[in-house]
Specification:
Layout: H1 4-14, E1 21-23, H2 30-43, E2 45-50, H3 58-69, E3 72-77, E4 80-84
Parallel strand pairs: 1-2
Antiparallel strand pairs: 2-4, 3-4
Protein name: Ribosome assembly RNA-binding protein YhbY
Pfam family, one: CRS1_YhbY
GO molecular function: RNA binding
Length: about 100
Amino acid sequence: MLTGKQKRFLRSKAHHLDPIFQVGKGGVNDNMIKQISDALEARELLKISVLQNCEDDRDTVAEELSKGAKAEIVQIIGNTIVLYKESKEKKKLELPKSK
């Protein structure tokens, strides 16, 4: 689990990112989870946008994506979800240590 300090750090890093995935009418599926998992391995931090026509609410979508991709939900703001997962190969972000 991420601490408040780590979440603040990740939110500041995610601020400049653009969403690279969109969840629409079809909702969350296995293919999307696989793509998001791969993208998290490459980038560690992602923004995903939940479109108006998505049948699930953003909290459900965030929950499904974080479980499927084994990632942490950093933030849900408006219709944008920020996910974080530490990369095994390409570690870029150094999280602040929790006390």
